[in-house]
Predict the structure of Winged helix-turn-helix transcriptional regulator.
Amino acid sequence: MATKRSYNDACGTAHALDLVGERWALLVVRELLLGPKRYGQLRKDLPGISTNVLAQRLAELEASGIVRRHRLPAPAAAEAYELTDWGLELEPVVRSLGRWAVRSPAHDRTAHLSATSFVLSLRTNFDPGLAQGAHGRYELHLGDEVFRVLIADGTLHAERGYQQQPEAVITARPSALAGVVYGGRQLADAVAAGDVRVDGDTTSVARLTAVLSLPAPAAAGPDTKR
C-alpha cells in the first residue's frame, strides 16, 4: 500500500482531512453510518469506486480507528465493515456538509443516489418546525434494503429495519423517491409511471414530504453586498 499523504499541519481540520480527506473516504464513512455493510454492498452502493481504491480506503480507515471489521450473525455469518463509536461521531459532520453542498448551483440531482444517502437526507432535512402535530409511520423498500421512518412529537427517526404497522409501505429507487420528496414531482405521476409503489395510505406520504425542507440555493454570482 502506498504511504498515506499528510498535510503536516497541526490544525485539527487539517488532521481531519488526513483521516477522511482522501477521495472516496468520506463516502465510505457515509455508507456505514446506518450500520455494517459487506465489501460487496459497499462496491454496489459506490458504483464509481474501483476495487483497489475501496480496499485501500477501508484499510486506511481501519488503521485510523474509524472503521473496524464486523462478523455478521447467522445466517449471514459473513465479514462486514462497521464504524467505531468514534467513526459514528462523523454523522453530524457528513450531514452538515451535505446540507451545505446541496445549496450549490452545480449540484447534480440526477446523479447516483444510494439508499443510505436518501435515508440520511431525511435525517438531515427534517424540519421540527414543520412537524408540530404531525405523525406518520412508514416502511421504505429501497432496492434490497428496508428502512423504517417514524414521525412523532416533532421528531423524525429513520433507520434500517421493518416498521410495525406502517401507514404506508413505499417501494422505489432512491433517486425516484427523492424526486417526489425533494424534486417537486407529483407522487401520483411517479406511481402511474411505475417509478414508485405505495401500499397503504397514499395520502399519508404527503405528511412525510411536508416535514422536510431544503436550504435556499447559494447565490450563483459574486457577493454584491461587500
In short: The chain has a mean pLDDT of 93.
